[in-house]
Amino acid sequence: MNERIVIQGLTKTYKKNEALKDVDLTIPAGAIVGLLGPNGSGKTTLLKILTGLIRSYKGTVSIGGRPVGEETKKMISYLPDEPYFADWMRVKDALGIFQDMYEDFDKARCLDMIGRFRIAEKARVRTLSKGTKEKFQLALVLSRRAPIVILDEPIGGVDPAAREVILDTILENYTKDQTLLIATHLIAELERIFDVAIFIREGRILLNKDVESLRMETGRSVDELFRERFRYE
């Protein structure tokens, strides 16, 4: 597989705290990649650097052979771990914003997804539960035809019954030429969709490996390996 994201010597420091420490990482095109680590391990910082939200760091980061910048922002559809929209807005207003901002936004696809999630276009954001808000934002992000989709804890705020629905929605709307990068600490629920697993702890990459090879070599699931590696955290 071709390398879509290449990171070399990446270090990010907040005052005296190193959030990322000399990270070297390649992420291929056409793969679903799990960025796996406990809270505070550096996952969100890494995602914000990839999306251009954090610009000050040491090292090099390239996406599609280009340094992170305005051009690479267009290549990424990003689901952050916080709300996108103000509570007073209606669902249809958010749809309009995405349609105006992104040429690759497929409104028909989004309407289909929010219909399956039973989200009304006239509903105000403030009336949606936390889980429904996350489903709505996921629908918006998955409706862009971007080469890279980045999801930060996509099932963190939903109940277990809704997680399978969300996973199925992700798989149904993923295309094989995309790179899908999912940051999570909920390994058991998500590992069935991963092609590649990356373990991160205290800002360092501990593992970056093809999931099938990992299972064959160890005879264990990714979740079991994760729990062993991080059992004291």
UniProtKB/TrEMBL annotation:
<protein>
    <submittedName>
        <fullName>ABC transporter ATP-binding protein</fullName>
    </submittedName>
</protein>
<dbReference type="InterPro" id="IPR003593">
    <property type="entry name" value="AAA+_ATPase"/>
</dbReference>
<keyword id="KW-0067">ATP-binding</keyword>
<dbReference type="InterPro" id="IPR027417">
    <property type="entry name" value="P-loop_NTPase"/>
</dbReference>
<keyword id="KW-0547">Nucleotide-binding</keyword>
<dbReference type="Pfam" id="PF00005">
    <property type="entry name" value="ABC_tran"/>
</dbReference>
<dbReference type="GO" id="GO:0016887">
    <property type="term" value="F:ATP hydrolysis activity"/>
</dbReference>
<dbReference type="InterPro" id="IPR003439">
    <property type="entry name" value="ABC_transporter-like_ATP-bd"/>
</dbReference>
<dbReference type="GO" id="GO:0005524">
    <property type="term" value="F:ATP binding"/>
</dbReference>
<feature type="domain" description="ABC transporter">
    <location>
        <begin position="5"/>
        <end position="227"/>
    </location>
</feature>
